Amino acid sequence: MNRGDIYWVNLDPTQGAEIRKIRPCVVVSATPVNRARRTVIVVPLSTEAKAHPPIAIPVKCLGKEAVAVCDQIRAVDKARLMRLEGYLSSQDLEALDDGVKQVLSLD
């Protein structure tokens, strides 16, 4: 399980305005941490959301235009990960990193 991998993740059950359903998510936690822990940190992807940097970053996912919804970052148990679908390009991962940094005030 590597940083930048795209997995189908079952995000249900959710509550309120949390992004829901089974959807592709990008693993953003560090690969060594992913190997050591039972959880990973992911950013959900959406083909419905509109791009609004820095909160929602346009990326290419599985050959389609998608949006990484950075303000919905979350830790999920590995049991929620259903299937590896691919990986984010290094350019898109860098843009995603910038979005997460801004959402979390890490800059």
UniProtKB/TrEMBL annotation:
InterPro entries: PemK-like, Plasmid_toxin/cell-grow_inhib. Its EC number is 3.1.-.-. One of its GO terms (biological process) is rRNA catabolic process. The keyword Hydrolase applies. It is an enzyme of class 3 (hydrolase). Keywords: Endonuclease, Hydrolase, Nuclease. The keyword Magnesium does not apply. Gene3D superfamilies: 2.30.30.110. SUPFAM superfamilies: Cell growth inhibitor/plasmid maintenance toxic component. One of its GO terms (molecular function) is hydrolase activity. It comes from the Bacteria. Signal peptide: none annotated. Toxic component of a type II toxin-antitoxin (TA) system. Belongs to the PemK/MazF family. This is mRNA interferase.
